[in-house]
């Protein structure tokens, strides 16, 4: 099992729309994330989201590209304690993407890194953190910033032309 934990795409400002759906940039970010995952041959089996509109829309973009299950979880909202989802991920045998929010993602990563200090990795929109499990421990494999995803896509596209 491998897991990707990712913050939703960029959302419109609350003053524009109080529900804060994805902006055009946020939609593009998750389309590029799906493209990147195809390049590295990483296929999700299930994508979990918080139910908040911007997380749902982000998750739905990737789920459509991979034709995979989309599921709502009450355990990945901004101020939730990540212990429940961490336990779930340790038991899950499928590849999972968790689309979530700050500060939740920062606290989750800190717990995986076995520290109480958040912010060790500056997670930005649509920048995946790859986790894997061995036994009853989750480890952080990689963090891929959005700018690196763009560079990988450009490089791959150049090779294809």
CA radius of gyration is 15 Å
CATH class: Alpha Beta
CATH architecture: 3-Layer(aba) Sandwich
Q: In percent, how helical is the residue content? A: 25-40%
Oligomer: single chain
Lateral strand order in the biggest sheet? 3-2-4-1-5-6
> Could you give the distance between the termini?
34 Å
Q: Outline the biggest β-sheet.
A: 6 strands, mixed
Secondary structure category: alpha/beta
Silhouette = globular
Number of helices: 5
Within the CATH hierarchy, at the fold level, what is the topology?
Answer: Rossmann fold
Mean pLDDT: 95
Low-confidence stretches: none
What's the helix-strand series? Answer: EHEHEHEHEEH
Percent strand: 15-25%
Description of the molecule:
- This protein has 161 residues and is of the alpha/beta class.
- A six-stranded mixed sheet has the order 3-2-4-1-5-6, with helices on both faces.
- It has helices at 24-39, 53-66, 83-91, 104-112, 146-160, and strands at residues 2-7, 46-49, 69-72, 96-100, 129-134, 137-143.
- Helix 2 links the parallel strand 2 and strand 3.
- It has a single domain, classed as 3-Layer(aba) Sandwich (Rossmann fold).
- The longest helix is centred in the first third of the chain and has 16 residues, at 24-39.
- The protein is built from five helices and six strands.
List keywords for this structure.
Rossmann fold; six-stranded mixed beta sheet; 6 strands; 39% helix; globular
SSE diagram, text form:
Blueprint: E1 2-7, H1 24-39, E2 46-49, H2 53-66, E3 69-72, H3 83-91, E4 96-100, H4 104-112, E5 129-134, E6 137-143, H5 146-160
Parallel strand pairs: 1-4, 2-3, 2-4
Antiparallel strand pairs: 1-5, 5-6
Helix pairs in contact: 1-2, 1-5
């Amino acid at each position: 099992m491998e897991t990707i934990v990712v913050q939703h795409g960029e959302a419109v400002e609350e003053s524009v729309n109080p529900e804060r759906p994805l902006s055009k940039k946020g939609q593009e970010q998750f389309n590029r994330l799906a493209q990147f995952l195809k390049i590295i041959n990483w296929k999700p089996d299930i994508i979990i989201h918080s139910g908040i509109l911007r997380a749902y829309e982000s998750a739905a973009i990737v789920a459509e590209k991979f034709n995979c299950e989309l599921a709502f979880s009450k355990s990945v909202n901004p101020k939730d304690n990540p212990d429940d989802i961490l336990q779930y991920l340790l038991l899950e045998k499928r590849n999972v993407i968790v689309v979530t929010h700050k500060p939740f993602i920062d606290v989750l990563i800190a717990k995986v890194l076995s520290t109480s200090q958040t912010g060790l990795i500056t997670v930005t929109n649509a920048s995946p953190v790859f986790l894997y499990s061995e036994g009853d421990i989750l480890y952080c494999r990689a963090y891929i910033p959005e700018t690196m995803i763009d560079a990988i896509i450009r490089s791959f596209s150049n090779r294809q032309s």
